[in-house]
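User: Predict DNA oxidative demethylase ALKBH2's structure from this.
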Amino acid sequence: MLAEAPTFGRDTFKLFDRVVESPHSICFYVDSWDEAVRQKNDYIYNGSRITDIRRTLPEMDNAKAKVQTAVNAEIKRRIEQFQGGAKLKHQSPHEWVPNASFVNCYDGGSESVGYHSDQLTYVGPRAVIGSLSLGVAREFRVRKVVARDDSSSADEKVQKSSDTARADAEGQIAIHLPHNSLLVMHAAMQEEWKHSIAPAQAIDPHPVAGNKRINITYRHYKENLHPRYTPRCKCNVPTVLRCVQRKKENRGRYMWMCHTSYSPGQEGCSFFQWAEFDDDGEPPWAKKIAKEGGDEIVSEKSCKEKAEGLY
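Assistant:
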């Protein structure tokens, strides 16, 4: 991975009408060249396509087998010990099988990533992510997302007290991630928490990686969330799946939205549609896809017709 890292790119996207560049480098890997072609042609991230998609390296494959075993054991343990023996609503009952990974490189203490939740569009609700850290140790921070009370208060003291209480509830947990450690982001992590890698003023160099941290985030991409099935916005671009985090009345609901505006030079549209999933996290069209065969190759026109007919 150290040999590959210098060839990674940096994402550029719009944030508050400004074009910004990610403060670390990144690369996307999938398990076959056929899937790489599909990703380049069909999948959308932050309103645009990724052009540099690579096949999973043999070393990543070897690690993936161990990560898969460890993550599935942790999922089982968590359900038994912390969830009363029952999976969460929308959590998949199936074995977690990673088939794609984003690899992040943090070259030195100044490289970082701000608080965020990972995108759910292709992994679905209650997604599980296995995050493998290699190289120099860095601090992984998480904080709980606490819903806001939308009722406006004319009393400034009451509002300030509410803001303080919410900040205390959100808190901040710092987790030290040394070389060769595995962090499991369980179901509900992306819906209820945000995470970050903060800049570090001082770090202890790794004997091989030096000041670099390589982070492989293994994910399971669902076939029934391929862009040919999900809703398209008025820009005729596949939409992004988000979860309501801040508003109390709709907290935990999922929605399809336009995200073209994140792409430099694009304005986007106002498309919005509530997303529906069954208890196992499957979309409304999943059964029909399974019946017809989800891996079929169809034309762009029939893809659009199928998506419109299934939703």
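The CA atoms of residues 119 and 241 lie 7 Å apart.
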